[in-house]
Hints:
The protein has helices at residues 45-53, 78-83, 100-110, 115-128, 144-156, 174-189, 201-207, and strands spanning 3-14, 17-29, 34-38, 60-65, 68-69, 85-89, 162-166, 193-198, 210-215, 218-223. It has a 6-stranded mixed sheet with strand order 6-7-8-3-9-10, with helices on both faces. A 4-stranded antiparallel sheet has the order 2-1-4-5, with helices on one face. A hairpin with a 2-residue loop joins strand 9 (210-215) and strand 10 (218-223). It has a domain at 93-158. The protein is built from 7 helices and 10 strands. The protein is α/β, with parallel strands linked by helices and 230 residues long. The two termini are 28 Å apart. Bound molecules: adenosine-5'-diphosphate (ADP) and magnesium ion. Magnesium ion (MG) binds next to helix 1. Magnesium ion binds at residues 45-46, 166-167.
Amino acid sequence: MIISFKGVTKIYNSLSGPIKAIDNVSFDIERGEFVSLVGRSGAGKTTLLKIILGQEKPNLGDVFFNGEDVRTIKSSHLPLLRRRIGAVFQDYKLLQTKTALENIVFVLQALGIGDDQIEKDAAEVLNIVELSHRNNNFPAELSGGEKQRLALARALVSRPEVLLADEPTGNLDPYHTQDIIRLLQKVHQIGTTVILATHNREIINNLNQRVITLEEGRIIRDEKEGKFII
Ligand SMILES: Nc1ncnc2c1ncn2[C@@H]1O[C@H](COP(=O)(O)OP(=O)(O)O)[C@@H](O)[C@H]1O
Ligand SMILES: [Mg+2]
């Protein structure tokens, strides 16, 4: 079991009062699964992913990563945990003043990897996402689909055990959406655990993988080969 939530509740304090974004949620994800997280806007998908990433802390309940209670992981070890989890978002979050290649190199340098290895790893990961021909282009010069492929390459270059994708196709047309989903499937096939949050019905119904459905912060359905039903 790679990720485990036990009775997790997350309440935000907003100006208009507390908002229960995640309400007593429990589930286990096994290593190597491809899990889609679906539900309407506001259902709690992003909050759940942020809890996995350690960007939000639950008010109640426990979260385990590889059997280890995330709350008790020393703060000095948190960067290590985050390295084991890659993430892509709807808005890509690329470094605009760096080329595609430099966006990747930047991550590898931050990991303290040697120059020879950086060159090899960067070339390899850009090849995996089929973006080698855009190495020297800036994000503004890339199409939406290419930007997301670059974001995916950046998330993968640290060889994470888990890849979180939060509405990765939210800004893409159907053609590029298929492209990104195909790449997520490729990433899954090489052994990465993938968690995909989306409200795109068509994607989910073609995946034939586990689907967890959230509604108002609660899991209302969790099916092995799920369909999108809300
Ligand atoms: N930083 C925040 N402060 C206050 N409320 C928030 C914050 N982030 C999300 N929420 C609220 O929590 C609920 C769940 O949001 P979110 O996790 O973003 O859902 P989803 O990703 O499914 O659209 C929503 O009601 C949203 O308004
Ligand atoms: Mg969201």
